[in-house]
User: Fold Oxidoreductase, short chain dehydrogenase/reductase family protein from Bacillus thermotolerans.
Amino acid sequence: MFLLKSCLITGAGSGLGKEFALLYSQKGYHVHLAGRNTDKLSAVQQEIEKAGGAATIHTIDLQQPEAIERLTASFRENGQNLSRLINNAGIGIFGPFSDMTLTDIETTFSTNVYGPILLTKACLPLMAEEGTVINIISTAGLRGKKYETIYCASKFALRGFTESLQKEYEESSVRFVAAYMGGMNTPFWEDSDYVKDPSGLPLPKEIAEQIVREAEDKLEIIIET
Ligand SMILES: NC(=O)c1ccc[n+]([C@@H]2O[C@H](COP(=O)([O-])OP(=O)(O)OC[C@H]3O[C@@H](n4cnc5c(N)ncnc54)[C@H](OP(=O)(O)O)[C@@H]3O)[C@@H](O)[C@H]2O)c1
Assistant:
């Protein structure tokens, strides 16, 4: 028997996902933290529990469809309902299009597109009573950008997925929110020299606060930074 409303957040060990986890926990949700790095997820879990909240960690690579199936099967077996799913995990590989390898393309699409699509499909039956799916896209899903070909293509795909679901589920109790934001100061840029100094960009906390607030009554959130 689960008394708290539950929220599943991918990429919850850092950046924007971590801020979503802290905010939804403060709002009284039991937060399910998903990502590949258990240490990062554990640190967020500890922070939530120290503040009196509740969180469960799920170490999962969203590039593996069978891992998504295992996670959601365990939710089904435990009678776990979800009222929020935040498809936040994402990667970016930047540079001239001619340098992009098949591996770059496959890794980007399996993380940014197939992962959210398969997870959403598997989570919808867990949102029987009501639910909101928030897809974290990017302004790269609104317009093409130089040296961002594969990233933009993946985020346009996530946008198309979200907008289509908004129409297909219009009459249902599940809502689909598309969130588009510009650059943020997060670990996203750590292994890349594409943005050498992200320190001038907004912190993810303020972006997460705006998304959590606006997702209650909007289906499209655009935050140009
Ligand atoms: N930072 C920006 O300027 C910016 C701007 C617009 C949009 N965004 C979008 O915002 C979202 C969050 O990014 P962020 O800026 O907060 O960067 P971040 O701190 O790097 O967060 C991305 C998260 O995704 C997780 N992740 C990556 N690959 C994964 C996989 N295969 N399976 C499971 N989890 C995976 C990572 O966790 P693990 O390493 O533990 O797996 C990480 O916690 C992304 O979708 C990104 O595209 C970012």
About this structure: The beta strands are 6-10, 30-35, 54-59, 84-87, 131-136, 174-181, 220-223.
